[in-house]
Amino acid sequence: MARRGSYAKGIAKREEILSTALDVIARNGYRGASVKELADAVGLSQAGLLHYFGTKEDLFVEVLRTRDRRDEAAAGSYRGAPLTGFVDVVRGNASVPGLVQLYAQLSIEAADPAHPAHDYFVERYRLFRSMMAELLRSRIDAGELGAHVDPDRAAALLAAAADGLQIQWLLEPELDMAAHLDYLVALLAAPGADDTR
User: Fold this and answer.
1) Where the record puts its DNA-binding region(s) (predicted)?
2) What domains are there in the chain, each with its CATH number?
């Protein structure tokens, strides 16, 4: 019995660490979130914190996964207009610049197949393109997007646009990422289609 309780406590502590890390990184950025600061925030030593994740990079990958789950839940609330949900997730990123910075930095570093975040980003992009292409197909079939749209290519372009706009926003915070992405989505609409993105 003690083992099961210990396991549950470990899971709870891991979730606490991830939630705290999300807040600290969102506020202080990728470079401003030291293992010491994160450990102090959850009442652990640095070694104790890393016991749950292995390395700082592994922790950061889990932070991004946690952020993704939250974003998916938020976007999922737009059942009737899922492309609007996608744009609103990007809009919400303006309130968490540190997480955008973490994502952008790790995505570049993860181009190295040996990086701990490599598999995360490969899988994330594959999943995004697949889900977005399916969503675009359904919108084309419903007459809401133009029949000229290639769903697979458009899905890849939407991912590229969202990530590229986030980098531009990090450099120029006055840039409205969501407005630009919303414009791109509108370009895909079929002539005369109502706005149920």
Assistant:
1) 34-53
2) 55-187 (1.10.357.10)
